[in-house]
Amino acid sequence: MVVQTMWKDRLSFSDVEDEALIRRIETLGSMGCGLLRFAVPDLQTAEILGRLAERVSMPLVADIHFDHKIALRCMDFLIAKIRINPGNIGGKEKTCAVLEKAAAKNIPIRIGVNAGSLPIDLRRRAEEGMEQAEALAEAAERELAVFEEFGFSDFLVSMKASGIADTIKANRILAGRTDAPLHLGVTEAGPLTAGVARSTAALLALLAEGIGDTIRVSLSDTVENEVIAGREILRAASELAAAEKRTLDKAKSARLYRKGVNIVSCPRCGRHGFDTHGFTSRWLSRLYALDRDITVAVMGCEVNGPQEAEHADLGITGAGEKVLIFRRGKVIRTIDAAEADAAFEEELQKI
What is the pTM of this model? Predict the structure, then answer.
Protein backbone atom coordinates (compact mmCIF):
# COMPACT_ATOMS: atom_id res chain seq x y z
CA MET A 1 0.00 0.00 0.00
CA VAL A 2 1.59 3.28 -1.13
CA VAL A 3 1.38 6.47 0.91
CA GLN A 4 1.50 9.66 -1.14
CA THR A 5 1.71 13.37 -0.45
CA MET A 6 1.65 16.54 -2.54
CA TRP A 7 4.16 19.38 -2.49
CA LYS A 8 2.72 22.54 -0.96
CA ASP A 9 4.47 25.23 -3.01
CA ARG A 10 4.91 26.27 -6.60
CA LEU A 11 8.18 25.18 -8.15
CA SER A 12 10.83 27.59 -9.41
CA PHE A 13 14.07 26.95 -11.28
CA SER A 14 16.06 27.73 -8.11
CA ASP A 15 14.42 24.74 -6.40
CA VAL A 16 16.30 22.35 -8.65
CA GLU A 17 19.58 23.54 -7.12
CA ASP A 18 18.26 23.86 -3.56
CA GLU A 19 20.12 21.18 -1.62
CA ALA A 20 17.88 21.61 1.44
CA LEU A 21 14.82 20.95 -0.71
CA ILE A 22 16.46 17.88 -2.25
CA ARG A 23 17.28 16.53 1.22
CA ARG A 24 13.72 17.18 2.37
CA ILE A 25 12.33 15.17 -0.53
CA GLU A 26 14.71 12.30 0.16
CA THR A 27 13.75 12.39 3.84
CA LEU A 28 10.09 12.03 2.85
CA GLY A 29 11.07 8.82 1.11
CA SER A 30 12.81 7.47 4.19
CA MET A 31 9.71 8.36 6.25
CA GLY A 32 7.55 6.13 4.09
CA CYS A 33 6.34 8.34 1.25
CA GLY A 34 6.16 6.32 -1.96
CA LEU A 35 5.10 9.05 -4.38
CA LEU A 36 5.35 12.83 -4.33
CA ARG A 37 2.94 14.82 -6.48
CA PHE A 38 3.48 18.33 -7.82
CA ALA A 39 1.00 20.73 -9.34
CA VAL A 40 2.09 21.56 -12.90
CA PRO A 41 0.06 24.59 -14.04
CA ASP A 42 2.19 25.51 -17.07
CA LEU A 43 4.94 24.36 -19.42
CA GLN A 44 7.66 26.13 -17.46
CA THR A 45 6.79 24.15 -14.35
CA ALA A 46 6.88 20.98 -16.47
CA GLU A 47 10.50 21.79 -17.34
CA ILE A 48 11.37 22.44 -13.68
CA LEU A 49 9.73 19.23 -12.51
CA GLY A 50 11.56 17.29 -15.19
CA ARG A 51 14.91 18.60 -13.98
CA LEU A 52 13.99 17.93 -10.36
CA ALA A 53 13.08 14.32 -11.20
CA GLU A 54 16.66 13.77 -12.33
CA ARG A 55 18.00 14.85 -8.93
CA VAL A 56 15.92 12.77 -6.53
CA SER A 57 15.23 9.08 -6.01
CA MET A 58 11.62 9.76 -5.02
CA PRO A 59 9.12 8.99 -7.83
CA LEU A 60 7.51 12.28 -8.84
CA VAL A 61 3.98 12.70 -10.16
CA ALA A 62 2.78 15.54 -12.38
CA ASP A 63 -0.69 16.84 -11.55
CA ILE A 64 -2.24 18.50 -14.60
CA HIS A 65 -5.48 20.29 -15.31
CA PHE A 66 -6.94 22.02 -18.39
CA ASP A 67 -3.99 21.75 -20.82
CA HIS A 68 -3.10 18.31 -22.19
CA LYS A 69 0.07 19.77 -23.76
CA ILE A 70 1.53 20.09 -20.28
CA ALA A 71 1.00 16.37 -19.73
CA LEU A 72 2.67 15.61 -23.05
CA ARG A 73 5.68 17.75 -22.13
CA CYS A 74 6.04 16.18 -18.67
CA MET A 75 6.36 12.77 -20.27
CA ASP A 76 9.58 13.85 -21.96
CA PHE A 77 11.20 13.61 -18.53
CA LEU A 78 11.64 10.97 -15.82
CA ILE A 79 8.14 11.46 -14.44
CA ALA A 80 6.76 8.43 -12.59
CA LYS A 81 3.08 9.12 -13.17
CA ILE A 82 0.71 11.61 -14.76
CA ARG A 83 -2.44 12.68 -12.98
CA ILE A 84 -5.08 14.16 -15.25
CA ASN A 85 -8.68 15.09 -14.73
CA PRO A 86 -10.34 14.06 -17.99
CA GLY A 87 -13.34 16.19 -17.04
CA ASN A 88 -11.34 19.38 -17.63
CA ILE A 89 -8.49 18.25 -19.90
CA GLY A 90 -10.34 19.16 -23.09
CA GLY A 91 -12.26 16.14 -24.37
CA LYS A 92 -11.71 12.61 -25.60
CA GLU A 93 -9.30 13.50 -28.41
CA LYS A 94 -6.89 15.23 -26.06
CA THR A 95 -7.19 12.47 -23.48
CA CYS A 96 -6.29 9.93 -26.16
CA ALA A 97 -3.24 11.98 -27.15
CA VAL A 98 -2.05 11.73 -23.55
CA LEU A 99 -2.77 8.00 -23.48
CA GLU A 100 -0.85 7.41 -26.69
CA LYS A 101 2.31 9.04 -25.37
CA ALA A 102 1.93 7.45 -21.93
CA ALA A 103 1.66 4.02 -23.55
CA ALA A 104 4.77 4.67 -25.62
CA LYS A 105 6.70 5.84 -22.54
CA ASN A 106 5.30 3.20 -20.15
CA ILE A 107 4.06 5.90 -17.81
CA PRO A 108 0.98 5.16 -15.68
CA ILE A 109 -1.91 7.60 -15.39
CA ARG A 110 -4.15 8.45 -12.51
CA ILE A 111 -7.69 9.36 -13.51
CA GLY A 112 -8.72 12.07 -11.08
CA VAL A 113 -12.42 12.78 -10.71
CA ASN A 114 -13.85 15.31 -8.29
CA ALA A 115 -17.09 17.14 -7.66
CA GLY A 116 -15.81 20.40 -9.12
CA SER A 117 -15.11 18.93 -12.55
CA LEU A 118 -18.06 16.64 -13.17
CA PRO A 119 -19.39 16.59 -16.74
CA ILE A 120 -22.16 19.13 -17.24
CA ASP A 121 -24.92 16.53 -17.49
CA LEU A 122 -23.88 14.82 -14.27
CA ARG A 123 -23.59 18.17 -12.53
CA ARG A 124 -27.13 19.00 -13.53
CA ARG A 125 -28.37 15.61 -12.40
CA ALA A 126 -26.62 16.11 -9.07
CA GLU A 127 -28.38 19.46 -8.71
CA GLU A 128 -31.65 17.68 -9.39
CA GLY A 129 -31.11 15.10 -6.65
CA MET A 130 -28.59 12.56 -7.93
CA GLU A 131 -26.25 11.55 -5.11
CA GLN A 132 -22.79 13.04 -5.47
CA ALA A 133 -21.20 9.65 -4.82
CA GLU A 134 -23.13 8.13 -7.71
CA ALA A 135 -22.21 11.06 -9.96
CA LEU A 136 -18.52 10.64 -9.12
CA ALA A 137 -18.63 6.91 -9.79
CA GLU A 138 -20.44 7.38 -13.11
CA ALA A 139 -17.94 10.03 -14.20
CA ALA A 140 -15.10 7.64 -13.40
CA GLU A 141 -16.78 4.83 -15.34
CA ARG A 142 -17.01 7.06 -18.42
CA GLU A 143 -13.30 7.76 -18.31
CA LEU A 144 -12.52 4.10 -17.77
CA ALA A 145 -14.49 3.33 -20.92
CA VAL A 146 -12.24 5.70 -22.90
CA PHE A 147 -9.12 4.05 -21.48
CA GLU A 148 -10.53 0.60 -22.27
CA GLU A 149 -11.41 1.66 -25.82
CA PHE A 150 -7.85 2.87 -26.30
CA GLY A 151 -6.45 -0.32 -24.74
CA PHE A 152 -4.62 1.52 -21.96
CA SER A 153 -4.53 -0.48 -18.73
CA ASP A 154 -1.75 1.11 -16.66
CA PHE A 155 -3.96 3.39 -14.56
CA LEU A 156 -5.70 3.93 -11.27
CA VAL A 157 -8.72 6.04 -10.32
CA SER A 158 -9.43 8.58 -7.63
CA MET A 159 -12.82 10.04 -6.79
CA LYS A 160 -12.31 12.90 -4.39
CA ALA A 161 -14.99 14.46 -2.24
CA SER A 162 -14.67 16.64 0.85
CA GLY A 163 -17.37 14.67 2.65
CA ILE A 164 -16.71 11.43 4.52
CA ALA A 165 -19.91 9.70 3.42
CA ASP A 166 -19.48 10.66 -0.25
CA THR A 167 -15.88 9.43 -0.24
CA ILE A 168 -16.84 6.06 1.23
CA LYS A 169 -19.89 5.56 -0.96
CA ALA A 170 -18.27 6.58 -4.27
CA ASN A 171 -15.40 4.16 -3.76
CA ARG A 172 -17.69 1.36 -2.68
CA ILE A 173 -19.81 1.87 -5.79
CA LEU A 174 -16.88 1.75 -8.19
CA ALA A 175 -15.19 -1.14 -6.35
CA GLY A 176 -18.42 -3.07 -6.76
CA ARG A 177 -18.64 -2.39 -10.49
CA THR A 178 -15.02 -2.67 -11.64
CA ASP A 179 -11.67 -4.02 -10.51
CA ALA A 180 -9.92 -0.72 -11.25
CA PRO A 181 -7.14 0.16 -8.77
CA LEU A 182 -8.28 3.00 -6.48
CA HIS A 183 -6.45 5.92 -4.92
CA LEU A 184 -8.18 6.96 -1.69
CA GLY A 185 -8.42 10.30 0.04
CA VAL A 186 -10.74 12.94 1.41
CA THR A 187 -10.01 16.11 -0.50
CA GLU A 188 -9.72 19.46 1.30
CA ALA A 189 -9.93 17.55 4.59
CA GLY A 190 -8.89 20.59 6.63
CA PRO A 191 -6.22 21.56 9.17
CA LEU A 192 -4.13 18.97 10.98
CA THR A 193 -6.49 17.74 13.69
CA ALA A 194 -9.74 17.98 11.75
CA GLY A 195 -8.17 16.65 8.56
CA VAL A 196 -6.68 13.58 10.23
CA ALA A 197 -9.98 12.83 11.97
CA ARG A 198 -12.00 13.08 8.75
CA SER A 199 -9.50 11.13 6.68
CA THR A 200 -9.26 8.39 9.27
CA ALA A 201 -13.04 7.98 9.41
CA ALA A 202 -13.29 7.59 5.63
CA LEU A 203 -10.15 5.59 4.90
CA LEU A 204 -10.47 3.09 7.73
CA ALA A 205 -13.93 2.10 6.55
CA LEU A 206 -12.67 1.45 3.00
CA LEU A 207 -9.34 -0.16 3.86
CA ALA A 208 -11.00 -2.56 6.28
CA GLU A 209 -13.15 -3.76 3.37
CA GLY A 210 -10.12 -4.33 1.17
CA ILE A 211 -10.81 -1.26 -0.96
CA GLY A 212 -7.91 0.95 -2.00
CA ASP A 213 -4.42 0.68 -3.47
CA THR A 214 -2.81 4.03 -2.64
CA ILE A 215 -3.73 6.75 -0.14
CA ARG A 216 -3.13 10.41 0.56
CA VAL A 217 -4.17 12.35 3.62
CA SER A 218 -4.82 15.91 2.36
CA LEU A 219 -4.05 18.37 5.14
CA SER A 220 -3.62 22.10 5.47
CA ASP A 221 -0.30 21.23 7.04
CA THR A 222 3.14 19.90 6.14
CA VAL A 223 3.91 17.11 3.69
CA GLU A 224 5.68 15.30 6.52
CA ASN A 225 2.52 15.24 8.61
CA GLU A 226 0.54 13.97 5.63
CA VAL A 227 2.94 11.03 5.33
CA ILE A 228 2.86 10.30 9.06
CA ALA A 229 -0.95 10.43 9.10
CA GLY A 230 -1.12 8.07 6.12
CA ARG A 231 1.23 5.59 7.76
CA GLU A 232 -0.70 5.64 11.02
CA ILE A 233 -4.03 5.13 9.25
CA LEU A 234 -2.59 2.06 7.54
CA ARG A 235 -1.27 0.81 10.88
CA ALA A 236 -4.69 1.28 12.46
CA ALA A 237 -6.42 -0.50 9.57
CA SER A 238 -4.01 -3.40 9.85
CA GLU A 239 -4.57 -3.71 13.61
CA LEU A 240 -8.35 -3.54 13.25
CA ALA A 241 -8.38 -6.14 10.48
CA ALA A 242 -6.30 -8.49 12.61
CA ALA A 243 -8.36 -7.90 15.75
CA GLU A 244 -11.68 -8.40 14.02
CA LYS A 245 -10.41 -11.31 11.92
CA ARG A 246 -11.81 -9.83 8.74
CA THR A 247 -11.95 -12.14 5.76
CA LEU A 248 -9.69 -10.12 3.50
CA ASP A 249 -7.57 -12.16 1.16
CA LYS A 250 -3.94 -12.49 2.26
CA ALA A 251 -2.56 -10.12 -0.36
CA LYS A 252 -4.82 -7.26 0.69
CA SER A 253 -4.23 -7.90 4.39
CA ALA A 254 -0.47 -7.84 3.83
CA ARG A 255 -0.63 -4.51 2.03
CA LEU A 256 -2.21 -2.86 5.07
CA TYR A 257 0.80 -3.79 7.18
CA ARG A 258 3.69 -1.37 7.08
CA LYS A 259 7.00 -1.98 8.78
CA GLY A 260 8.19 0.87 10.97
CA VAL A 261 8.45 2.46 14.39
CA ASN A 262 5.41 2.72 16.64
CA ILE A 263 5.67 5.91 18.72
CA VAL A 264 3.85 6.00 22.05
CA SER A 265 3.89 9.41 23.72
CA CYS A 266 1.85 10.83 26.57
CA PRO A 267 -0.11 14.07 26.03
CA ARG A 268 1.54 15.81 29.03
CA CYS A 269 -0.17 17.22 32.10
CA GLY A 270 0.64 19.15 35.27
CA ARG A 271 2.69 16.23 36.60
CA HIS A 272 5.13 16.24 33.71
CA GLY A 273 8.82 16.21 34.43
CA PHE A 274 9.91 15.76 30.84
CA ASP A 275 9.07 17.85 27.77
CA THR A 276 7.36 15.19 25.67
CA HIS A 277 6.16 17.75 23.11
CA GLY A 278 9.59 19.17 22.40
CA PHE A 279 11.37 15.82 22.36
CA THR A 280 8.79 14.17 20.10
CA SER A 281 8.89 17.12 17.71
CA ARG A 282 12.69 16.93 17.45
CA TRP A 283 12.74 13.20 16.86
CA LEU A 284 9.61 12.63 14.79
CA SER A 285 11.12 12.59 11.29
CA ARG A 286 14.14 10.59 12.44
CA LEU A 287 12.03 7.92 14.14
CA TYR A 288 9.65 7.54 11.20
CA ALA A 289 12.65 7.06 8.93
CA LEU A 290 13.74 3.93 10.84
CA ASP A 291 13.01 0.71 8.99
CA ARG A 292 12.47 -1.28 12.16
CA ASP A 293 9.47 -2.80 13.92
CA ILE A 294 10.07 -1.30 17.35
CA THR A 295 8.02 0.70 19.85
CA VAL A 296 9.45 3.94 21.22
CA ALA A 297 7.83 5.57 24.26
CA VAL A 298 8.14 9.26 25.16
CA MET A 299 6.57 9.68 28.58
CA GLY A 300 6.10 12.77 30.73
CA CYS A 301 6.48 11.56 34.29
CA GLU A 302 7.04 8.63 36.62
CA VAL A 303 3.31 7.81 36.57
CA ASN A 304 3.36 7.10 32.84
CA GLY A 305 7.01 6.20 32.66
CA PRO A 306 8.62 2.77 32.63
CA GLN A 307 5.67 0.87 34.12
CA GLU A 308 2.90 1.96 31.74
CA ALA A 309 5.28 1.79 28.79
CA GLU A 310 7.05 -1.40 29.80
CA HIS A 311 6.24 -2.90 26.41
CA ALA A 312 8.46 -0.30 24.68
CA ASP A 313 11.73 -1.36 23.11
CA LEU A 314 13.11 2.03 24.11
CA GLY A 315 11.60 4.78 26.22
CA ILE A 316 12.46 8.11 27.79
CA THR A 317 10.92 10.09 30.64
CA GLY A 318 12.01 12.57 33.28
CA ALA A 319 11.79 13.56 36.92
CA GLY A 320 13.12 16.93 38.07
CA GLU A 321 16.47 17.62 36.49
CA LYS A 322 17.03 13.98 35.65
CA VAL A 323 16.02 11.99 32.57
CA LEU A 324 15.45 8.25 32.62
CA ILE A 325 15.97 6.01 29.61
CA PHE A 326 14.39 2.60 29.86
CA ARG A 327 14.01 -0.58 27.87
CA ARG A 328 11.13 -3.00 28.41
CA GLY A 329 10.23 -1.26 31.67
CA LYS A 330 13.74 -1.38 33.09
CA VAL A 331 15.68 1.87 33.60
CA ILE A 332 19.04 1.55 31.87
CA ARG A 333 20.33 5.12 32.22
CA THR A 334 19.75 8.12 34.48
CA ILE A 335 21.24 11.31 33.09
CA ASP A 336 21.00 15.11 33.22
CA ALA A 337 18.30 16.68 31.05
CA ALA A 338 20.91 18.37 28.85
CA GLU A 339 22.23 14.95 27.84
CA ALA A 340 18.85 13.48 26.89
CA ASP A 341 19.10 13.61 23.11
CA ALA A 342 22.67 12.33 22.93
CA ALA A 343 21.97 9.46 25.34
CA PHE A 344 18.77 8.52 23.54
CA GLU A 345 20.71 8.47 20.25
CA GLU A 346 23.27 6.09 21.73
CA GLU A 347 20.65 3.68 23.03
CA LEU A 348 18.66 3.81 19.81
CA GLN A 349 21.76 2.73 17.90
CA LYS A 350 22.04 -0.37 20.11
CA ILE A 351 18.64 -1.74 19.13
Answer: 0.87
